[in-house]
C-alpha cells in the first residue's frame, strides 16, 4: 500500500540533511499522519533547514487547523536564529498535538529570535484569547542567549488564554542570563488566573528549571513580590531548580518563609534544588523554618510544607546546617553531597541517624571527605534497631568518604540487620590497589 503503518518515531539528530530533503521529510510526516516524535539535523541545520522542515510540515493545513501530527520535536543544537524561530512559531502556534519542544543549546536564539517566535505565533491565531501552543507540556530553551526581554516575550505568549489551557507546563530556562529582571516576568506565569476546570489561582508552570540564570537574592524577591500582587499563591508549582544562582542566606530566608502552607507563595513545592548556592548554616536555618523546624533546628512534628525532596549539595551548610536539615521530618529525600562536612560533621549528624530515619528514604552524604572512623560511627548508629523499628531509610550514599576494613565489616552486619537498606560507597583502598595490581599483571602477561 506504500503507507507507513508502524514507524512512529524518527531519531536522527546529528545527521546532516539538505533543506530540500528536510522539506520532503516534513511533507511526508504530515501526509502519513503517523510520525509523532522527531529529532533531526546536525549543528549546521540552521534557519534554512528549520524553515524548510516547517514548510513541509505546514502542507495541507489552514491557519486555524494544524494537521502536523508531531507530539515531540527535538531541535537541540541546530544553530537556530530569527528565521527558524519564526517558522517554528508559525507552524505550531495552533497545534493540538505538540506536547514537547526542545530548543536547547541554540546560542543564536536571542531576545530577538524569541520575540520572532512569539509574534509569528500570535499572527496565526484566529480566536481572541485562545491559548498559543495549547497542548504544550514541556519547553526547553536552556543554554541559549535569552535575557530579560526574551523571557518577557515568552511569558506574555504563554499567559495568553491561560484559563483555557488544559495542562500545566514544564519549563527549562537554565543557563540563560535572565537575572532579577527576568524573574519578574517568570513570576507572571507562576501565579496566573486559574484554568477553567480548576476555578482558582494556579501556576501555569508545574516544573521550572532556572539553574545558572543569575537569579540571586534579588531575583527571589522579584518572584515573591510579583506573585503576591497577583494573588499570593503559586499553587501547582511542584518542582523548582535554583542551582548555581548566587543565592545566599537572605534568599534562603525568602524561600523558607514561602514554603509555609498558611502564607507562602511556594507552598505547593514538592522538590527544591538549591545546589551550588552558598547558603551557609545560617541560610539553611532560615530555610528549615518553612519545613517545620524552629530556631534550634528542632522539628515541631508538623508537616508545614509540601516539600519532600531537597538538594543542598555544595551549599556550605556545615555540620549545623546538615543537622537541621536532618531534623525536618517532612522530607523523604535529602542531598548533602560535597559540603566538606568531614569527620566532625559526620560525628555531629550521627545522633540523628541512630536507628535510621523516620521520614528520609534517600540520603546522600557523598563527597564529604570524612575519615573511616567517623563513617564507621555513623554506620554503627544505623545498626541500632528497636522492636517497633520505623526507619524509612532505603538508600544511603557515602561515596567520597574514607572506606576501609572496619567500614566493610559494619556494612556486612548492616546487610543482615537492615537488608532493605542499600548503601553506595567507594571501594576500599586496599581492594582498589589489589585490582590495579591484578590489571597490571594481566596486561603484562597479555603483552608477553
Amino acid at each position: 500500500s506504500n503507507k507507513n503503518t508502524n514507524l512512529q518515531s524518527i531519531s536522527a539528530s546529528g545527521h546532516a540533511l539538505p533543506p530540500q530533503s528536510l522539506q520532503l521529510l516534513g511533507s511526508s510526516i504530515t501526509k502519513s499522519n503517523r510520525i509523532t516524535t522527531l529529532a533531526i539535523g546536525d549543528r549546521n541545520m540552521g534557519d534554512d533547514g528549520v524553515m524548510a522542515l516547517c514548510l513541509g510540515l505546514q502542507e495541507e493545513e489552514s491557519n486555524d487547523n494544524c494537521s502536523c501530527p508531531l507530539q515531540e520535536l527535538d531541535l537541540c543544537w541546530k544553530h537556530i536564529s530569527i528565521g527558524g524561530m519564526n517558522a517554528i512559531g508559525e507552524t505550531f502556534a495552533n497545534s493540538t498535538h505538540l506536547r514537547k519542544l526542545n530548543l536547547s543549546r541554540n546560542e543564536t536564539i536571542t531576545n530577538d529570535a524569541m520575540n520572532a517566535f512569539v509574534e509569528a505565533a500570535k499572527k496565526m491565531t484566529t480566536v481572541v484569547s485562545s491559548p498559543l501552543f495549547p497542548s504544550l507540556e514541556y519547553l526547553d530553551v536552556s543554554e541559549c542567549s535569552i535575557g530579560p526581554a526574551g523571557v518577557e516575550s515568552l511569558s506574555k505568549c504563554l499567559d495568553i488564554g491561560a484559563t483555557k489551557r488544559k495542562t500545566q507546563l514544564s519549563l527549562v530556562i537554565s543557563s540563560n542570563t535572565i537575572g532579577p529582571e527576568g524573574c519578574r516576568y517568570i513570576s507572571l506565569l507562576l501565579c496566573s488566573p486559574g484554568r477553567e476546570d480548576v476555578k482558582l489561582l494556579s501556576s501555569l508552570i508545574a516544573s521550572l528549571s532556572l539553574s545558572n540564570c543569575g537569579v540571586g537574592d534579588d531575583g527571589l524577591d522579584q518572584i515573591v513580590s510579583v506573585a503576591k500582587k497577583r494573588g499570593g499563591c503559586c499553587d501547582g508549582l511542584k518542582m523548582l531548580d535554583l542551582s548555581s544562582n548566587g543565592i545566599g542566606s537572605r534568599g534562603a530566608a525568602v524561600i523558607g518563609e514561602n514554603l509555609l502552607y498558611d502564607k507562602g507563595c511556594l507552598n505547593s513545592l514538592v522538590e527544591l534544588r538549591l545546589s551550588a548556592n552558598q547558603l551557609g548554616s545560617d541560610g539553611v536555618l532560615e530555610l528549615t523554618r518553612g519545613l517545620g523546624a524552629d530556631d534550634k533546628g528542632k522539628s515541631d512534628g508538623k508537616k508545614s510544607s509540601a516539600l519532600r525532596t531537597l538538594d543542598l549539595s555544595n551549599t556550605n551548610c556545615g555540620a549545623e546546617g546538615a543537622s537541621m536539615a536532618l531534623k525536618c521530618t517532612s522530607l523523604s529525600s535529602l542531598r548533602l553531597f560535597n559540603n566538606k562536612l568531614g569527620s566532625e560533621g559526620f560525628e555531629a549528624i550521627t545522633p540523628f541517624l541512630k536507628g535510621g530515619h523516620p521520614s528520609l528514604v534517600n540520603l546522600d552524604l557523598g563527597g564529604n571527605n570524612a575519615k573511616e572512623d567517623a563513617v564507621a560511627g555513623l554506620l554503627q548508629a544505623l545498626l541500632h534497631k528497636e522492636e517497633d523499628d520505623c526507619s524509612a531509610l532505603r538508600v544511603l550514599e557515602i561515596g567520597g568518604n574514607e572506606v576501609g576494613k572496619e567500614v566493610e565489616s559494619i556494612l556486612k552486619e548492616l546487610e543482615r540487620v537492615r537488608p532493605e537498606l542499600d548503601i553506595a560507597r567507594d571501594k576500599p583502598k586496599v581492594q582498589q590497589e589489589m585490582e590495579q595490581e591484578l590489571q597490571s599483571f594481566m596486561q603484562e602477561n597479555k603483552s608477553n
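The radius of gyration is 26 Å. The longest helix spans residues 429-447.
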